[in-house]
């Protein structure tokens, strides 16, 4: 009886410690590949050189080099895309952000989809034309009000969202925020919203002149 | 030796099971008082009656009653304030949202502070004047660019942030998002940003005519 109890005790200890050990090991492995991203970026940002994000090696331009700013962190998050970038953006006139999107599309083979606002895609300096010219799929709001979102989802798992439009003034002038998260409780609904807007603004669904003639 | 080992085994099992038990109990207690809020709201919303959020009892207006919409959920989150509401808002012309803020200030004794944009506080239908008239502390951006945030922090622990300005068009027309979270990793930086903007836009720091006369 005593021996049985001792063996039972040892068994329970062994199982409990094994479970704790496996849990600890999983946590260590998770930390090793990085905790889930959770970050808040505030703007305006100081102006620094961003060439090193695209081209390795020294740069001779007159801007400060090597500094980490909210803007370079935002660009790095976007450049981390390996398979897809789904972007809903109200106003897009930042040349630096356009350079990132074109880089992802041309050099990294990332599947880029953009939904934007029909009025603001025509603002001075808008980069929407450059995206379309490069062969990127862009759809614009077909409804009567604004598509006012400013969010991006990288590889279906990293959400970048906030008040920041992708304009020079927003980045370097305004008080703005960008929240970055891998929390699926936030990422999933934004992905669903993107798909909803992507489908709703399919030009094939828009009534054309021939539709009116048929009526 | 055998007895010592047995006792040691029982001791380890007892301690381990106790720790697991305490952990389980804490989780149960936490679930009992509700999981941390984590929610995403998308707009536009349908128009429903919101009187029941302020006054108990039936309402005879012609709007739909009793429906839960993204807007009523947003209002409920704001009305959950018991001690403070810190609000950074670019454009504020929604009468319903103004009613909520006035209710918190007048009826619930909540300490309300508002930072807004100097240009957009003068848009048609702006509610900023009504807030100031009611004795609510409002500061506006003193810098040269826009205060473009749209966030609120309730009781220093619930963050409400997104693309949604507090306007009629944003709520009922535009495609907008609002993210609601109690995650301190997000709440803390937004609280710090609020305090930074609150201090930076203190009118006492702004140069007045007498400052220029002294120069």
Automatic annotation (TrEMBL), chains A, B:
Source domain of life: Eukaryota
Q: Name one Pfam family in it.
A: PLDc_2
Q: Which SUPFAM superfamilies match?
A: Phospholipase D/nuclease (SSF56024)
Keyword list, A-Z: Hydrolase, Lipid degradation, Lipid metabolism, Meiosis
The record places domain PLD phosphodiesterase at 143-170
Q: What is this enzyme's catalytic activity, as reactions? A: a cardiolipin + H2O = a 1,2-diacyl-sn-glycero-3-phospho-(1'-sn-glycerol) + a 1,2-diacyl-sn-glycero-3-phosphate + H(+)
Entry's InterPro entries? PLD-like_dom, PLD_domain, PLipase_D/transphosphatidylase
Q: Which family does it belong to?
A: Belongs to the phospholipase D family. MitoPLD/Zucchini subfamily.
Annotated protein name in UniProt:
Mitochondrial cardiolipin hydrolase
Q: Which organism is it from?
A: Huso huso (Beluga)
Print the organism lineage. Answer: Eukaryota, Metazoa, Chordata, Craniata, Vertebrata
């Amino acid at each position: 009886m005593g021996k049985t109890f001792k063996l039972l005790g040892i068994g329970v200890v062994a199982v409990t410690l094994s479970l704790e050990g496996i849990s600890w090991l999983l946590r260590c492995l998770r930390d090793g590949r990085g905790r889930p991203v959770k970050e808040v970026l505030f703007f305006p940002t100081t102006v620094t050189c961003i060439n090193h994000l695209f081209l390795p090696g020294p740069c001779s331009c007159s801007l400060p080099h090597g500094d980490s700013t909210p803007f370079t962190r935002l660009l790095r998050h976007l450049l981390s895309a390996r398979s897809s970038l789904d972007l809903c953006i109200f106003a897009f006139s930042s040349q630096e952000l356009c350079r990132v999107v074109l880089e992802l599309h041309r050099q990294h083979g990332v599947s880029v989809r953009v939904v934007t606002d029909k009025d603001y895609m025509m603002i001075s300096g808008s980069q929407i034309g450059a995206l379309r010219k490069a062969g990127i799929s862009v759809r614009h709001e077909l409804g009567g009000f604004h598509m006012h979102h400013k969010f991006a989802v990288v590889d279906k798992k990293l959400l970048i969202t906030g008040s920041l439009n992708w304009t020079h003034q927003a980045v370097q002038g305004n008080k703005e925020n960008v929240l970055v998260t891998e929390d699926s409780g936030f990422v999933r609904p934004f992905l669903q919203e993107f798909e909803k807007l992507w489908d709703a603004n399919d030009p094939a669904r828009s009534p054309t002149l021939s539709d009116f003639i048929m009526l």
